[in-house]
Amino acid sequence: MPASRTTLRRGLAAAAALPLLAVAATACGYGSEAKDDQRSEVAAEGKKLSADTVRIGYFPNLTHATALVGVQEGLIQKELGGTRIAPQTFNAGPSEIEALNGGSLDIGFIGPSPSINGYVKSQGKNLRIISGSASGGVKLVVNPDRIKTLDDIKGKRIATPQKGNTQDVAFLNWVSGKGLKVDAESGKGDVSVVRTDNKVTPDAYKSGSIDGAWVPEPTASKLVSEGAKVLLDETALWPGKQFVITNIIVSQTFLKEHPDVVEAVLRGTVKTNAWINANPEKAKASANAALKAETGKELAPEVIDPAWPSIRITDDPLAATLKTQSEWAVKAELIDEPDLNGIYDLTLLNKVLKAEGRPEVADAGLGAK
User: Fold this and answer.
1) What is the pTM of this model?
2) How far apart are CA 27 and CA 230, in angstroms?
3) Which residues on neighbouring strands pair with residue 215, listed in sequence order?
4) What are the tens digits of pLDDT across the range 131-156?
């Protein structure tokens, strides 16, 4: 095994356990430890389930719209009755995984890369993916004066949010497919991959230190508001134009001890997703109101209006696409081949979907036995 690969894998393992730098209102988070929700515990009415409280974690960004809207509109709490929601907001996948594995969080909304890292790090013992939440919302945006076509990427400086994260892996796979070579650890090669916190990427773009970025929303639309152009929407690269950007995960201990609570949360998320898809403008306003409550600042219309429709809200975890993303990371020599058997348990989700008259979703052969 090359020494550089060993070093990077150790870095990824460390990232799975340690919080990173703070950043608010970004997608697929990279940043701080959890922030206690200002609302503390959401008021509950009705019959209490098997737990007094369920601690739900999510990021203050649009790709976590199910959580933002579900909590904001009371749609999840309604299904929980007298069991209260205790929301916790995170800005980093690693810190949310740490909270889940450490027992301070029960259920979380999170991206595919930290889901994989967290599952593998615990040798499959600490979490399960129990539902999907969102697809898409990732774009390659560029300075139109420097990059006019996809073939102009060679020799340019392109930002991704974090070494080894979901967008970084996707970009490395894309440039490889174009015959360009990049060292995954250093980011150096035919294209310079500049790992840049989403919070500072717009400033890096304005200063001219990067030529473009492969980033999630709303960072992509923030860059467009600064004069960048969308050169590629990642959805165009996927069969069916969809890929997982946010999962719902649960502590295996909590799932075993409180399946009624987990099922109630999933009823709430399924109903929330249906409401979002039926009321896109109201849902966009609700998500922005939730962002303001969480971060103190809402997204400007020129950012949220183009960002919102690029994110597809879905109950389907799109398990086959998580498997593909994992294969890309292996191909880039970022990780060894992971054993993902058992990472999904969609039993309760499919029970809820059946009750709603909806078709079941699949786990791509990676379900718990």
Assistant:
1) 0.84
2) 17
3) 139
4) 999 999 999 999 999 999 999 999 99
DSSP conformation letters of 313-348: E-S---HHHHHHHHHHHHHTTSS-----TT-B--HH
Rounded mean pLDDT of 158-176?
93
- Bridge partners (DSSP) of residue 141 are 213, 230
Q: Which residue type, as a one-letter code, is found at position 246?
A: T
C-alpha 102: how far from chain center: 20
244 Cβ contact list (under 8 Å, min separation 6):
111, 112, 132, 134, 135, 317, 318, 319, 321, 322, 325
Sole residue written with tokens 């892996």: 169
123 CB-near residues (< 8 Å, 6+ apart): none
What are the strands of the beta sheet with 192-195, ordered from one edge? 192-195, 157-160, 212-216, 138-142, 229-233
User: How many whole angstroms from its chain centre is CA 326?
Assistant: 14
Look up residue 136 and give its two tokens: 């898409």
- The amino acid at residue 31 is G
* Residue 150 pLDDT: 92
* Contact between 96 and 60 (Cβ < 8 Å): no
Of the chain, the end-to-end C-alpha distance in Å amounts to 32
